[in-house]
């Protein structure tokens, strides 16, 4: 089965996992749990739609079952936040709910718009370096959008553990992928100038 199928299933199940946690811990009146369900559950469904309509070729290859299970295990770490919220009956303050909702919205825009741009560029203008639009200032703006998304989830738990998990994903998965991408793009003669003018990951900073 293709790697994207494992990822789609894992992310698509997120809504039902969170709803199950709300039911198991009897958190029906927990406003933070419902906000979290709305954010992370919606993200899971949006990811499946993105995978259907403008898929990332990086996930299109076949993988063995054991590696698919590893994918599920890694993705399940993102369910630590709703576990903390429902198990500990966490009630985030209203201002934090607002900040996380705004952070999530911006992250969704950057992540999905960048992936759509890349998909369309590669489909209709293959074999060229993408240096325009959302990619003009930051080479991995999609990863930055994803960072905002997962930070919004982690902050709602008001606990340090989800933030550590996000950091581990950055160090062991995102950063190697970004560096690998730079190495691949180096084959284009204009990449050196593009690299000089743009940031790797975080706009205006890094």
Please outline what is shown here.
The chain has 206 residues and is mainly α. It is built from 9 helices and no strands. The longest helix is centred in the middle third of the chain and has 31 residues, at 94-124.
Descriptive account of the structure:
With 206 residues, this protein is mostly helical. The protein has one domain. 70% of the residues lie in helices and 0% in strands. The protein has helices at 3-12, 14-24, 31-53, 65-76, 80-87, 94-124, 141-156, 160-185, 191-197. It starts with a helix and ends in a 9-residue tail after the last helix.
Indicate the radius of gyration in whole angstroms.
Answer: 18 Å
SS field, number of helical segments: 9
What is the residue-averaged pLDDT? 95
Give the DSSP E fraction (strand runs of 2 or more residues).
Answer: under 5%
Order of helices and strands: HHHHHHHHH
Globular, elongated, flat, extended or rod-shaped: what is the shape? globular
Terminal Cα span: 36 Å
Low-confidence stretches: none
Describe the largest sheet. none
Helix content: 55-70%
Structural class of the helices, strands and pairings?
mainly alpha
Number of domains: 1
Number of strands: 0
What are the SSEs and their pairings?
Blueprint: H1 3-12, H2 14-24, H3 31-53, H4 65-76, H5 80-87, H6 94-124, H7 141-156, H8 160-185, H9 191-197
Helix pairs in contact: 1-3, 1-4, 2-3, 3-6, 6-7, 7-8
What are the key terms here?
single chain, about 70% helix
């Amino acid at each position: 089965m293709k790697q994207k199928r494992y990822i789609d299933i894992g992310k698509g199940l997120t809504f039902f996992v969170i709803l199950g946690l709300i039911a198991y811990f009897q958190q029906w009146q927990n406003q933070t749990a419902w906000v979290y369900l709305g954010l992370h559950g919606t993200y899971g469904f949006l990811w499946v739609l993105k995978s259907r309509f403008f898929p990332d070729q990086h996930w299109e290859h076949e993988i063995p079952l054991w590696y698919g299970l590893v994918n599920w295990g890694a993705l399940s770490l993102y369910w630590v936040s709703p576990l903390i919220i429902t198990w500990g009956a966490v009630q985030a303050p209203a201002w934090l709910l607002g900040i996380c909702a705004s952070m999530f919205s911006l992250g969704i825009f950057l992540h999905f718009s960048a992936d759509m741009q890349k998909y369309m560029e590669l489909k209709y203008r293959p074999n060229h370096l993408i240096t325009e639009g959302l990619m003009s200032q930051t080479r991995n703006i999609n990863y930055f959008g994803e960072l905002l998304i997962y930070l919004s989830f982690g902050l709602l738990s008001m606990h340090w553990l989800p933030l550590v998990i996000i950091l581990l994903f950055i160090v062991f998965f995102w950063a190697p992928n970004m560096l690998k991408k730079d190495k691949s793009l180096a084959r284009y003669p204009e990449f050196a100038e593009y690299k000089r003018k743009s940031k790797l990951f975080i706009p205006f900073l890094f």
